[in-house]
Amino acid sequence: MPSTPVSEHHALAPHRVACFVLVVSDSRKLETETSGRAIVELLEGAGHSVVARALVRDEPAEVVAAIQRELTAGRARAVITTGGTGLSRRDSTFEAVTTMLEKTITGFGELFRMLSFQEIGAAAMMSRATAGIADRSVIFVLPGSEHAVRLAMSKLILPELGHIVQQLDK
């Protein structure tokens, strides 16, 4: 059976996805941080809804608990985190979230680092941006930089968000 062209998949995909935005930071406050706000702005500008936005410290248990609460509530089909993906001792979002994933979307991290490399060079290898599936929802783990967030959102997440959710419903 021949595969369906991507354009046909996009046509069948939901145009509005309910999303939860989680900022992970030890130093920022929800009222003043810019990366999570950029995610909300871009999601809503593309017609998606943001059911909640929260900030937690870069503590694995807090990250997992915040995401698990949203997944259990069943309000969001997509969770987008920002922060805690670097290499410092306190950066633990990657470890926290990957323990929750049933499947990984390996290509997301690969493509994000490729796009970042085109903009910032070899330093892109230090990003541990990733994505995967948990409880029939997609989770994206983005760096804390607003520029990195805007890159991931515009080039990768927004073009495929509805398509990914459609695939989760099959």
End-to-end separation: 17 Å
Average predicted local confidence, pLDDT: 94
CATH fold name = Molybdenum Cofactor Biosythetic Enzyme, Chain A
| Amount of beta strand | 15-25%
Based on CA atoms alone, the radius of gyration comes out at 15 Å
Question: What is the CATH class designation?
Answer: Alpha Beta
Kindly state the percentage of residues in helix. Answer: 40-55%
Specify the CATH homologous superfamily. MoaB/Mog-like domain
Describe it for me?
This protein has 170 residues and is an alpha/beta fold. The protein has one domain: MoaB/Mog-like domain (Molybdenum Cofactor Biosythetic Enzyme, Chain A, 3-Layer(aba) Sandwich), CATH 3.40.980.10. Helices cover 45% and strands 19% of the residues. The protein has helices at 6-12, 35-45, 60-73, 93-98, 106-120, 146-168; strands at residues 18-24, 49-56, 78-82, 103-104, 130-134, 137-142. A six-stranded mixed β-sheet has the order 2-1-3-6-5-4, with helices on both faces. The model has no long low-confidence stretch (mean pLDDT 94).
